[in-house]
Amino acid sequence: MQPLSFILTHAWLIPVIPLVSFLLVGLVLRPISERLAGAFATLAVGTSALLSWTLAYDYVHLAEHGKSLPSLLPWSAMWLHFQDGFGISIGTLLDPISVMLLVVVTTVSTLVHLYSTGYMHGEPGYARYFAFLNLFTFSMLGLVLAPNLVQMYVCWELVGASSFFLIGFYFEKPSAVSASKKAFIVTRFADLGFFLGILVIGFYANQIFAAMPASATQGLQPLDFAFLTRPDVLAALSGLDVHFLGVGVLTLSAVLIYTGGAGKSAMFPLHIWLPDAMEGPTPVSALIHAATMVVAGVYLVARCFPIFATSGDALTVVMCIGAFTSLFAAVIGCTQDDIKRVLAFSTLSQLGYMMFALGVASFAHPLGYSASMFHLFTHAFFKALLFLGAGSVIHAVHSNDIWHMGGLRKHMPVTHALFLIATLAIAGIYPLAGFFSKDEILAAALHSGHTVVFGVGLLVAGMTAFYMFRIYFVTFWGEPKSEHAHHAHESPWIMLGPMAFLGVLSIGAGFIPIPEWVQLPGAPVEHEGIDLAVAIPSTILAIAGIGLAWLLYGGSRDRVDSLVAKLGGVYTLIKQKFYFDELYLFVTHSIIFRFVAAPIAWFDRHVVDGAVNLSGWFTRTTGLLLGKLQTGQVQTYGSWLVSGAIAAVVVLWGVLKSGGN
Amino acid sequence: MGLASWLILLPFLTTLGVLFTPASRPTLIRWVSLVGTGAHLLLTAFTTWKFWEVASPDIALAKTSTLTKLYFVERIPWFKSLGVDYLVGIDGITMSMVILTSIIIFTGVLASWNVVNRTKEFFALLLLLVTGVFGVFLSFDMFLFFMFYEVAVLPMYLLIGVWGTGPKEYSAMKLTLMLMFGSAFILVGMLALYHYAGGTTFDLTQLAQFHYPVEMQRWVFPLIFIGFGVLGALYPFHTWSPDGHASAPTAVSMLHAGVLMKLGGYGALRIGVYLLPEGAQYWGLFFMALTTINILYGAFGAIKQTDLKFFTAYSSVSHCGFVLFGVASLNLMGFKGAVLQMFSHGVMTGLFFALIGMVYGRTHTRIIPDMGGLAKVMPWLAVCFYIAGMASLGLPGFAGFVAESHVFMGGFFGNAWSDPLATRVLTVIATLSIVVTAVYVLRGLAKVFQGPITDPHFLELTDATLTERLSTGILVVTLAVVGLVPGLLIDLIESALLPFVNRLHATGALAVAGHP
Amino acid sequence: MAEFLTTHGLTLQHWLVLTSALFSIGLYGMLTRRNAVGVLMSLELCLNAAAVNFVLFNRYLAPTNLGGAERLDGAVMTIFVIAVAAAEVVVGMAIFVAMYAERRTVDVTRLDALKD
Predict the structure, then answer these.
(1) What is the pLDDT of residues B149-204, one digit of tens each?
(2) Kindly report the CA angle at B451 between B446 and B456, in degrees rounded to 5?
(3) Does A480 sit behind a cis peptide bond, omega within 30 degrees of 0 on the bond before it?
(4) Strand A247-248 to A243-244 pairing
(5) In A67, A82, B291, C21, which residue has its Cα 20 to 30 A from A20's Cα atom?
(6) Contact at CB, A630 and C32, closer than 8 angstroms
(7) Which of A165, A172, A256 should one mutate to test binding to chain B, selecting the residue with the greatest count of B CBs within 10 A?
(8) Are A638 and C30 in contact (CB under 8 A)?
(9) A106 exposed, middle or buried (CB, 10 Å; 0-12, 13-18, 19+)?
(10) CATH topology of domain C9-103
(11) Contact at CB, C112 and A633, closer than 8 angstroms
């Protein structure tokens, strides 16, 4: 093998540049000049993007003919030393999925930075915004490159924190504040599962690690992916006769780790934070809550795929929850009026798609694995474009409500064209990017024998086309429905440029041979071209969805209103997102706060502290009572003295007498 | 005079310096204190460097040793008839605690820059207090240890009683009495240790070579652990903490929560586990369960608090629970986690109390629902507050995560003397706190700093002054440095802690050594 | 007289009963009299009981020393007691007079300055 190129050995530069930029922008440049800060931050991420493209170029050329791409760890260093033989290193793991995500993250991040210089222009806290975007980019890149579970967890938390700060960017707006809190706490709850998963698998992996000869574990640590996903280790883990509540160690830890992924990727029932997260600035939604951070969960499952696949049961959980979420979110997506929320639900639905694609994969049928990663790749571009387009619209109309828009295709032709491209892409229309990846996922579901999941996937494909075209028609067609919509202006080129770039990617990303590069290591190559048995029904359903959307929303609103009236309670139920937010609010506020926290606070003040005060009171009272004996009357003291003396004599006498016997 | 003695003497000399400065010149008094503590910070840095130089070659030795090696030892016989020596020295745990204390007192002096009432007495007592604290950490003679401890507690009473707020006399009395209650336990335990070893020495290094009878260890260990636990806010002896911290002036809260509470874990480890390994084996699981309650109880208790100081005090109860939890888990990771948590909680809570003092100095309220939107007018303080909050909920990148991950790993890995399922279940229960912590931290901070400004007079408030920026900045940087490069601290403490573990595993061998 | 007392079947015990009674009467008076002068008089009774005891024990238990010479230790102590008692009365009465001048009473139940 030829020696690695500079960028491959120095891949750590890619995350470190945004980190340095974060510190510089946050501490030095922010007070000097806001504009300079923004430009610097953008430049830093742009440099990272250039480096990652170079890296990706070098990396795909490493493949020797007919062989799959290697997995490299060109740099690592000990970070946290727990005990001998059990430490955590930090490093840069380069394999097909990490390189792919590296490219996605830096590309979208750069475009979003660029777009934001226009979108956020004149906002207070402009530099703060860019500092956090940098921080996010650093954390996300660290997550992508993580060679072990702990580095992943560390960056996982950091992306959560930067997401928290960015959702709460408008910190004077109560809804943004509560949305940021909600996002952090819900994902934190999920991360608890991730952390427990690390504890469980760390404990047993450490045992296995310690039992192996040193030569077999050279240069590895128990929590390294390279160690955990080795067949012999997996066999040892699944062979452990340790069960908790009837679940084996491997399945238990896989499901726990998946919980973390489900939280970040907003799988049902942890999805509630994502729609609220749209309170953040729109470019943030594009970057974090559509293209990059939310796919971390999918990435995590893909990264640990051998663990899930060996367990089997865990993979079934992934599949079922993924399929259900994709359907559930699509149903809700059909009823929302906030353009960003519709996009959020569509993100949920697409994440479910990626998840169930992983769920249907196995070592025998690895297609789902490649398909999931492929969809992750294409989705990042068209979803980011959708959000940026929505941002452009919101920028012009000053409202998120689609019923305040309308007729914008005349006022904003570029935005309209790009939005249409992205909408067609997500609807899965040939030859746009979404078609290829979606087709591959459906084919994977069908060929691995999961017919029900395939059916759900088809249905969701149709629904996706429907609700996406619903917002498209309402927003861009018909008559302007508000004063602002009448006077809407096209966005500046600094915003349109990045969108156009994403538009090109949304069209062309499907032709990039991701499935060829990204393959499950150790599984047979299973790649087929376009499977007509899948492509034809899915395209028909997509066109049907578009048609239905045109029928209902292309003309006047009366048709919709009468349909809504007919649906009645069902519609309200869906529109209120099945009352999940209310349920969570009830559980946290009315149950946990009221029946756990408040009683503990009360208990502490009144019972525990009460006991302390009681002992103090007891001492004082005893003192006061005894103090009463001090009368100041010498004669009383004398009486006590005499009676004491008599008592002493009597006692002594008694003792002497009994002693005498 | 060696480095260890200088570390104790320097704050005392600063105290004298303050006492000899005329009370009519408060600014000079502040500068004397600042220069004294600043010099101490430099001395600590120098000592750390020297310590690292002499101690790092001995790490391999520590892996098999059952005795922690001390450096910079100084021994002067004191009461020969009782076997009391002036014995000071430094090992890794001590070193990290000295670093912590030195940072906290320096920033504490900066944070108290605006004390105007009886400035001279305030700084003199503060420095006397910290002299006692350094003495406690550096002395390796139990008698000396105890003496310095009293030197630290008594100024605390006056500082809270005179410069405090709210029901300060009540709080000061309660705090002092409860700490005395704890020291009564410790005293009995120490006397037992002294007596059983022949009544000839209080020297910890010599007592460590003596093997105590198992029955004796079993009744003395809980005395020592609970006695020190009172200082470390062990449930249910923690209630001095909310009242005491709420009433104390800023620097005292910082020192007390940041440093003095660490004595709980320090003593439980240094005297409890080190001298009484079999007692620790016997009681480990029990105290693990008790500290699990600590962790969750404090966290849940904090949710419902409305006073910022109470809020932080409950969070301290939860976080100090981690320290004792780590100690009770009886393995290397747990011990390391405990010491790391002592350090990180010290810095974190010092930062919290410093910030609360600064916010209170501006808004004149500590009631959370009365505040809102302060980030707009005091961005520096808000950012520091968020950093402290993120560190306290264990965000990676700050010291808290390093400590918590060690503690949880330690708890989950368990030990040979406690039921493995029980330790694991307890650990899982304890990990719930990371969610609860996120809930209360974010709720509290969101109310204070985010949202619209609730009171128009807040609009006139100003952001941090230069001294305040310096003080909070140092603490934030410390948190981040330890969080990003944990090896700095871990390497320092690991060689000191390895013998603790070896002793636990070698109780049989100790018996041989103790009875030749 | 001494001859008579020792030879007419009166043993030490008889005498001790007498002095105990005398002491108890004094003690009772000391604890119950409200007038300070009465308390002082009762105190004298106690002292006298003790003085008599000195003489008695001297006489009955160690009348002579090893050489056979008569011992007078008890009598000497009695003289001391009488002397101390006399001094005490002087000091006591002086205090009472001063107290009467100050408080217009010598009722001991009203003299409770020791309280608090």
Answers:
(1) 888 888 888 888 888 888 888 888 888 888 888 888 999 999 999 888 888 888 88
(2) 120
(3) no
(4) antiparallel
(5) A82
(6) no
(7) A172
(8) yes
(9) buried
(10) Helix Hairpins (1.10.287)
(11) yes
